[in-house]
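Run log, item B.
One chain of 196 residues. Sequence copied directly from the ordering sheet:
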Amino acid sequence: MSEPVNESRRRMAIATAVVPGAITGAAVVAPFVATLAPSERAKAAGAPVEVDLSTIKPGEKLNVEWRGKVVWVMKRTPEQIASLEKIPASQLSDAESKKSKQPSYVNAKTRSITPDLVVMEGVCTHLGCAPTAKLTPGELGNDWLGGFYCPCHGSKFDVAGRVYTGSPAPTNLAIPDHKIDGTKLVIGITPDGKEA
């Protein structure tokens, strides 16, 4: 005949085995779970970026990194602003920026909050190449009034980042959310203070 089972001893034996196992399991899993949280560098890469506008002169362009992309901050000259009116809409693929990434609070023609300051991603919308500044009128032909050129596949953009017809790029250069507060530009925040 078998001896009766001592239930209290059985529960004690199970607890003695399970509790250390659970503690060991938690100790093994905790560092792994901690690696799933974004690092401080990753958090900073998506954080808004501030730019001092007081140092930018008309005709100059700054390159700023935001979310792993180059963002151009360019102070346009009066001549560059005037050139935007001279380009016929028929020469632009998306003259009113209806298909392109652009916040609703920027002017469709100048693609900016204020006519003299444009903020746009310096990434070609064709295959993600880096266009170069070709700001001198006539540099790419008689009808060229200045802008940006992607040498990889030949996409052309005006000084507002609007793409010319016949370019491989399907849309204008992207305009990120931003706000201007005096001489301070914040990329990654809407004018009403919401983070993008």
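Observations after the first pass:
- The chain has a mean pLDDT of 82.
- The helical segments are 7-35, 40-46, 78-86.
Flagged for discussion on Thursday.
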